[in-house]
Structure formats: structure tokens, C-alpha cells
Amino acid sequence: AITAWSEFGHKGQIAYGDDIVIAVVDGGFDPKHNDLINNMWINKGEIAGNNIDDDGNGYVDDVNGWDIESNTGEIQMDSHGTHVAGIMGAQGDNGINGVGINWNVKIMYVSAGWGLGDTATTMSAYGYILKQKQIWLESDGKRGANVVAINSSFGIDRADCNTSE
Q1: Rounded Cα distance, 119 and 122, in Å
Q2: 47 contacts 107 by C-beta, under 8 angstroms
Q3: Is 13 in contact with 21 (CB distance < 8 Å)?
Q4: Which residues contact 103 (CB under 8 A, 6 or more apart)?
Q5: Which distant-in-sequence residues (6+ apart) come within 8 Å of 40 by Cβ?
Q6: Cα angle vertex 35, ends 159, 98, to 5°?
Q7: Residue 159: which residues within 8 A CB-CB, separation 6 or more?
Q8: I want to staple 27 with a disulfide (CB 3.0 to 4.6 A). Which of 40, 78, 96, 141 is the partner?
Q9: How crowded is the C-beta side of 11, counted as CA atoms within 13 Å?
Q10: What is the secondary structure of 4-72 as a DSSP string?
Q11: What are the distances in angstroms from CA 50 to CA 14, 71, 126?
Q12: Is residue 141 a contact partner of residue 18, using CB atoms and an 8 Å limit?
């Protein structure tokens, strides 16, 4: 049973220590940001940089998430995505910069670049997230990601997802 986060005092974890994962679908992120680096989701089944799909999920080297446009685990730098991730999960109580709403949440980065407004890119981004959640459920939390929320900043000029692409 899930109990309110504040009862555990972890500000981002549920009972039994399962990580809460929030997926951020945006143009990219700064994975080296001081307030975000400790809260990055890590795909424990992947070995970074070996060009092998170690966990067999269909994505090669998806250690912290996936870049839809480049079809790699390399996340592009983007200040907007960094800002959004910071609001959602900048580490608290570390004496650096600011703090997010969830101090210890894990952030899964899904970079969709500037193609975020078209249907194909959006569906690919959500497909990656869904697959990680399915793996987590099927493995009793041993693999994949316990994704409980997704943020997608489409913006007014990209709010229409009815393209034929």
C-alpha cells in the first residue's frame, strides 16, 4: 500500500524504499547540474557506453533515459528541461542552489528535442516511459522504473498533437 510521502519523511519515496520516478519529456536536460545529479534515475540493468542493450529492453545504453531524435541514451543539453526537472525534483538539504517539490525523487530524462509537437515523437517518448513501467511491474520492482508521473511541456505553439507524422 502506498502511504503519503510526508509520513516517511523521505519527500519522494514510498513504503519499502521503492523509488518514485518522474519522467520529464522535454528538449533535453543538464545531467551534471548540482541539484539534479543525485536525483537522476539510473537504469541499473545498463552499462554505460558499451553499445550493448544489457537489460534487453530494446534500448542501447539507456542509463538515465532516452533521446527520441538521436535514438540513443545520450541526453542533449537544454535549459528549459533543466528548469522543469529542477522544479519537480531538485535535491533538497544539500546547501546548493534551490530545491524541488520532491527532494529525493528520481528523474527519468526523455529528450524529444524540438520534434515534441508531432505525434510520432510524442508517442515514442511515452512508449519508452510505458515500457520502463511495464518492466518494473513485471519484475516486481527489480528492473525498469516506477514511473508515477510524467511532465511534457508542449507549449502553446506545440499543443496540437493531431499531426499526420
Answers
A1: 5
A2: no
A3: no
A4: 10, 11, 12, 89, 90, 91, 92, 93
A5: 31, 64, 106, 107, 109
A6: 85
A7: 117
A8: 78
A9: 13
A10: -HHHHT-SSB-GGGPBPEEEEEES---TT-TTTGGGB---TT--TTS-S-TT-SS-TT-SSEEETTTTB
A11: 33, 15, 25
A12: yes
pTM of the model: 0.81
Residue 133 grid coordinates? 513501467
Residue whose C-alpha cell reads 545531467 in the numeric block: 31
DSSP 96: S
For residue 89, what is the enclosing H or E element? helix 79-89
Q: What is the pLDDT of residue 16?
A: 47
